[in-house]
Give the backbone structure.
Amino acid sequence: MPLKYEKYLRVNKVPNMWCPGCGIGIILKAMLRSIETLEWDKNEIAMISGIGCTSRTPGYVDANTLHTTHGRALTFATGIKMARPDKHVVVISGDGDSSAIGGNHLIHSCRRNIDMTLIIVNNNIYGMTGGQFSPTTPIGSRAATAPWGSIDPPFDLGMLCKAAGATYVARGHVGAAAPLERLIRGGMKHKGFSVIEVMSNCHTQFGRRNRLSDPVQLIDHIAAKTINVREAAKLSPEELKEKIIVGLLHEEQREEYCDAYARVIAKASASIIN
Amino acid sequence: MPNSTLKRRVKFWTGNETIAEAALVAGCRFFAGYPITPSSEIAHVLSQRLPMVGGKFLQMEDEIAAMGAIIGASLTGDKVMTATSGPGFSLKQENIGFAAMIEAPCVVVNVMRGGPSTGLPTALGQSDIMQARWGTHGDRPVIALVPAYLDEVYTETIRAFNLAEKYRTPVFILIDEVIGHLSERVDLPFDDEIEIINRTRPSVPPEDFKPFDTTWGDVPPMADYFSGYRFHMTGLNHDSGGFPTTDPALCQSENERLMRKVDANLYDIIRFEQTSIDDVEILVIAFGSSARAAAVAIADARSKGIKAGMFRPLTLWPFPEKEVRELAGRVKGIIVPEANLGQLFYEIDRLVAGKCPIKRINKVGGVPIYPGEILAQIEVF
């Protein structure tokens, strides 16, 4: 039976504030289906965000939700998870929020390998503030602050997170909701810091400036560039140049941070001589 | 057994150690910080002591992250603290404003060093007091405590946690490097002399709970995350349910309520000490290490027959305005010694409003103000 999304939504807060056709809705639904499949209790979930269109998501989700300052969501999430390691912590963030102003927190969260799930909605642009180029805007794309085409080399967020130590790194896109759900579910199940980057459409700010102003057209444009990680393995770097590699990019097991701190507590407690 | 027959436990601690130990007694179970001189010893002690009592210590990637982490932990119901010094205090201001906005109890220690910028990392300053008052954007209530003696550092640290919990707001402890690093005898209070206040939890069932419900007064009851009370919080202007609003009347009334939490409870929050004040002619107003020097200067002046006295705020913000206004009307003059270029002076000048002359002693070279320097000003007033 299909999920009644109302179970996890604050229905009195809709209609939402996103533009018609925005990819965030597809991602939110994939998240909620994952939560349903994993049978997480709403009381046991904290969902945290920073600033931006994506960061409005927690306001619509019926859980313990927190809409924080720009780029800082992971720091609040780290405090929450450390304080209550047995709970589920999910962070949802945009490309600018997570990798520009929040870039330091991103790499250090990966390094600690604290058990939480980070979903990065990457639409290659600052949507809410009016279409400025972000750290993932492709070179040559136009933005409000790159009227002559962006010259800034973009991050590959998957590679960045893997290199920084994340133990689950995946990339999906809004043109393929079922595989996206599997990737998110995998990240939520994974013990450790998991990142799911989701290529999404901002037709309003990115598309409008780059001749892709129709949402379906932009989603098709993203989908056409994707290639599965298994297929990509057979191609040369030259052949992969314009491609977006999707799928499970990296997974490993490494001691989780709260578990490591539990060892500290055990050691410190044992040192007390009565 | 009555207390009088018991001996007080005595410690020989630095100011920074005293804050860390008092925080544990106050119930602090979560600390996040970032290395910075001259506050680092607070983190040193708590990294060892917190896990011994099942608490959590985090060294974060930067000052901003440390502030974010303690707010997150506070939302789960923990009592939380971070400690820093000038440059770190600047970085924390963004999330201090967030804590004030979502009304998350937390304690922020600033062991003040010389500034501006990186300034004098290992030497004292008292130049962050206006940053404490105005450092984050927007209007928000401020409570800042400025203990000067280590007995007081101990009790005021506990009081900082109590005020944070009672008023759902960040509380600052501002000490200068001299207080942070000096060692002296600390007479610990007996357990029954220590009052511990915990935030008010909701009495209504989860379905009726709103995180900013003012039915019971200006400080709304606060539920813990994961307690079955699911709620939303945002740094945006919000309604009683915690959801964003741009309704002008609501934004106005909520911002005013935030301020009223402190403004309507001044004499629950304000503490000060008055020394030799009954017949005072020359009044010194000082806090922290400058007040310790002033106490010596005043004793010396009295021995010379000069009617000197001191007004020493323990609560710097909100400032004890009424007392200073009254004193200004009956003294010949006021001296304000401080390790900055005149920040407390601005506040005093505003309150005195021309009723008496004010002399300033301002030192920013990283050395403390000495008693002789204050005495010299008392003598020539």
